[in-house]
Amino acid sequence: MHSFESHIRSVPDFPKPGIVFKDITPLLQDRFPEVIKAMCHGIDWTKVDYVVGIESRGFILGAAMAQLQGKGFIPMRKKGKLPPPVIAETYALEYGTDTLEMIQEEKNGRVVLVDDVLATGGTLRAAAALCAKNKLEVTAMSLLINLTFLNKFKEEGFPVVSVLDY
Fold first, then answer.
1. Are 49 and 72 a contacting pair, CB within 8 Å?
2. CATH of the domain at 144
3. 7, 20, 52, 95: which has the fewest Cβ within 10 Å?
4. Is 5 part of the annotated catalytic residue set?
């Protein structure tokens, strides 16, 4: 078993009052190879064609996972960062909306969605919907941290694999 928790900094009132931000920077600095192996654990890689990393920490984690598993990597970015043709999914935030985009795919594929933290799940739900629009089947969702007290993803049947649950 890994002891990753001691490498995660809790930062109170960031980015706004009442939020305790989980800073994974020290963990990635000290234990990056172990983190990537742990995030790959529990996934049936025979049912995966690509790793989709959600901007921006999902790029770091997802690209390393794709490299380790010999899979291709697809970036999912905030609106306006990718060249056309793109497809988009807009989702609600606490104050307003945000939009994720990815390059439009010409072929079907099976993917693992990767991000650092699952909180309320708005971004991850939008990412899954965007993959579906883009002919990509989400076979797993790999997360470093799942804040289970803020979401019911596992209970709702989403294929969530997380290294740390709070």
1. yes
2. 3.40.50.2020
3. 95
4. no
